[in-house]
TrEMBL record:
Organism name: Streptomyces caeni
InterPro entries xrefs: ADH-like_C (IPR013149), ADH-like_N (IPR013154), ADH_Zn_CS (IPR002328), ER (IPR020843), GroES-like_sf (IPR011032), NAD(P)-bd_dom_sf (IPR036291)
Similarity annotation: Belongs to the zinc-containing alcohol dehydrogenase family.
Name of the molecule in the record: Zinc-dependent alcohol dehydrogenase family protein
Cofactor section: Zn(2+)
Domain (Enoyl reductase (ER)) ranges: 8-343
Keywords: Metal-binding, Oxidoreductase, Zinc
Short name of any one Pfam family annotated for the protein: ADH_zinc_N
Length: 356
């Protein structure tokens, strides 16, 4: 079969790789139909995730059909159409008992496209399939469903829920890429007074407006002052970092009100300065986190009911075998306007980012 293989920083290729096989009785083999590319995949290609060994097939988001199961798999059968979660859960360790699947100590957590071969291939082996794949409603389109493998649960759990968004809050989201946009969409479920989107790219700010942002702020034009003006000098109740850069995290800490929450969602590849000399007195809560995907079943039901604007994030579609072109388009988002790039499934012409 073919797979997209990481060969070291800046080196990758769509090439022949061995077909996956059942290794444990809890495994399932899934024929991949639709995948998407994550910003974390780009971090891997840059060398920001040194745990990924050269020779690893990348990818951790997919929709497909189960073609084979191990003897100890009970919740899915060959022929089932499933969502492959970005997080694998053994279901037996203490973290899994607490639904903190991202910290699984039984061989799970974020392993696909990280510690083992991932989903950017024609077939993928999914360990612990009972808790790591989800049956899909027949009416849910694959390109909608694949966004629930990672970005929507990540934005919802690590951003909105960790940030304790409440009705009437002022919420600021720094970074209007796919994760930031999903955070805006899911924050709206809690009826905040206003959502402020901060980014450098006008097209992304336009997309943020479509998804429910009330105020748009150019990151180069002192958004901290704008938020202070809107909140009588206090700052935002909840600020989400959805970039993964030192300057954006420090900006978030300057935007939040005393007693507020800073929810870091971004993947950081460089050290960040935490200015405790300024922050110790502000009673802040700062959270970090890897998604646990405990919310995936709820989000799937909401998407099937038309309650989540998933497809509006998809700006480019490619056949699965155009993986290298798709990565290039996604990596050059400033030039291409890419938000979420989807491969496989029903094909559509490559389109530009939707404008307001």
């Amino acid at each position: 079969m073919k797979g997209f293989v990481f060969h070291g920083p800046g080196q990758s290729a769509w090439e022949d790789v061995p077909d996956p096989a059942i290794k444990e009785p809890t495994d399932a083999i899934v024929r991949v139909d639709t995948v998407s590319i994550c910003g974390t995949d780009l971090h891997i290609l840059k060398g920001d995730v040194p745990e990924v060994r050269p020779g690893t097939v990348l990818g951790h988001e997919a929709v497909g059909e189960v073609v084979e199961i191990g003897s100890d798999v009970h919740t899915t059968q060959p022929g089932d159409r499933v969502l492959v979660s970005c997080i694998t859960a053994c279901g037996r360790c203490g973290y899994c008992w607490e639904r903190t699947y991202g910290q699984c100590r039984g061989g799970g957590g974020w392993i696909l496209g990280h510690l083992i071969d991932g989903t950017h291939a024609e077939y993928v082996r999914v360990p612990y399939a009972d808790l790591s794949v989800h049956a899909l409603p027949g009416a849910l389109d694959s390109k909608d469903a694949v966004l629930l493998a990672d970005i929507f649960p990540t934005a919802y759990e690590v951003g909105v829920l960790n940030g304790h968004v409440r009705p009437g809050d002022t919420v600021a989201v720094v970074g209007a890429g796919p994760i930031g946009l999903a955070a805006i969409a899911t924050a709206r479920l809690f009826a905040p007074e206003r959502i402020i989107a901060v980014d450098l790219m006008p097209a992304r700010l336009d997309a943020a407006k479509q998804l429910g942002a009330d105020v748009l702020a150019d990151a180069r034009e002192t958004p901290e002052q704008l938020i202070a003006d809107l909140t009588d000098g206090l700052g935002a109740d909840v600020v989400m970092e959805a970039v993964g850069a030192p300057e954006s995290f420090e900006m978030c800490t300057r935007m939040v009100r005393p007693g507020g929450h800073v929810a870091n969602i971004g993947v950081h590849g460089k050290p960040v300065t935490l200015h405790l000399e300024d922050l110790w007195i502000k009673n802040l809560t700062i959270t970090t986190g890897l998604v646990d995907t405990y919310s995936t079943p709820t989000l799937l039901r909401m998407a099937a009911a038309g309650r989540l604007p998933t497809s509006s994030l998809v700006t480019h579609s490619f056949p699965l075998d155009q993986m290298e072109e798709a990565y290039d388009v996604f990596a050059r988002a400033a030039d291409t306007g890419a938000l979420k790039v989807v491969l496989g499934g029903e094909q559509h012409e490559v389109v530009a980012v939707r404008a307001a």
